[in-house]
Specification:
Layout: E1 2-4, E2 7-9, H1 11-36, E3 45-46, E4 57-65, E5 69-72, H2 91-102, E6 109-114, E7 117-122, H3 124-132, E8 137-145, E9 157-158, E10 161-162
Parallel strand pairs: 3-5, 5-7, 6-8
Antiparallel strand pairs: 1-2, 4-8, 6-7, 9-10
Helix pairs in contact: 1-2, 2-3
């Protein structure tokens, strides 16, 4: 048992917490370097409304390359572009996931595939631990969304004139 800040941990738990602290420090140093050099922050790609896409289709349970997981549906501010944790409140959960890896008790992550990239809906900590430990593949429930959705139907002609689409099919406000 190890004592840290008055709390006792098993050596494995202590190692998991140390691993989290190490990769979080790396993310912090990288963020500072990017800020000092005037480059944008290294954040996960965000993908919104994937679960509401009517064109999505279920591809099943697959082993996918961890390095192709590049974004998130809902946690893109908690991890950097390489899934290093950015927030201290992730520490306990991250350490729990790290320990579960040793016991081979991980459920599959849930991802949406868009082109060749994957976006995490559930399993951000598992992807973070997988990357930090050098795993090449992770088991995932995969949903696919076409990278280029089917074109919208053309507007009807009115009195011989073709109506112009407004805002590429999005809801518009006019003054």
């Amino acid at each position: 048992m190890t004592t840290l800040h008055g709390a006792q941990f098993s050596n494995q738990r202590y190692m998991a917490l140390e691993a989290f602290d190490r990769i979080r420090r790396q993310a912090g140093w990288l963020a500072l370097f990017r800020k000092l050099t005037g480059r944008p922050a290294s954040r996960l790609q965000a993908f919104f409304a994937a679960s509401r896409q009517p064109e999505r289709r279920y591809l099943g349970l697959k082993d996918i390359p961890v390095m192709q997981i590049t974004g998130s549906l809902n946690r893109f501010e908690d991890f950097d572009a390489t899934f290093r944790p950015l927030k201290s409140h992730l520490r306990g959960r991250w350490a729990d996931i790290y320990l579960q890896l040793r016991e081979d008790r991980w459920p599959p992550v849930i991802v949406f595939k868009v082109g060749e990239a994957y976006f995490v809906e559930d399993g951000h900590h598992r992807v973070s631990v997988a990357r930090s430990t050098g795993m090449a593949y992770i088991q995932a429930e995969v949903w696919e969304i076409p990278a280029h959705p089917a074109p919208a139907p053309r507007p009807a002609k009115v009195s011989g004139l073709q109506a112009e689409p407004c805002c590429a099919g999005l809801a518009c406000q006019t003054a």
